[in-house]
Amino acid sequence: MARELGCRMGEIEQMIRYAYWNSGCTGIVVGVSGGVDSAVAAAFCCRAIGPDKVLGLSLPTSVSNPQDVRDAADLCAALGMEHRVIPIDPMLAAFKTLPGFVESPYLLGNLMARIRMTVLYYHANRDHRLVCGTSNRSECLLGYCTKYGDNAADIQPIVHLYKSDVYEVAREMKIPEPILTKTPSAGLWAGQSDEGEIGLSYAEIDTALRSLEANGWKARTPAEEKVLARAEKNAHKRLAAPSLFTVP
Hints:
- The protein is built from 11 helices and 4 strands.
- By secondary structure, the chain is α/β, with parallel strands linked by helices.
- α2 runs parallel beside α3 (66-79) and α10 (202-214) crosses α11 (222-233).
């Protein structure tokens, strides 16, 4: 099992290295939230091209947990990569001046995700870097992401890994314990948690997804029905925008 895990991790590093060399870029930028997904993605980038070429950006708001920024800083220091903190509250405030602006957790959450994407791509464009995504397979299949927000990236090193796989890799990489043991959260509002918002634990989600994929996406339990319904509702997030474009 350890050898198999090592091979899977090596494949990810090779993918990052190949994309990086092919791009002609000079580095990679990754949003480090203080959570396990971004920690593992950042660690893979450091292993693939060297920590001196990887920039980690923490993009908190007033509702972010300050401990998350400290955890992100500790992670980047341990990996030997550069870390910068850029609060995005001033950018959010500018959007709030839009005529007819309506504030709700849903609207603000999506706005935060897209502002963060814009900041990451600004640094990528300015410094000739690739943007590294941090989405995992569980979130991708559920559509638990913001279109053109946290699912926008040039490379996606862990999008094929279930959340449970991400934790397995994180332990192998010796990601700091505070990151491994914290409650997964997108930090979109105070007290928000991924599992609370979805209504299932990641263990339940991954079990349901594995069963659905193995059985032709036919639900056999209430949990699988719930997961399948969410996956079908959010399928548009995994597909290209409808168009009449054809390759000549």
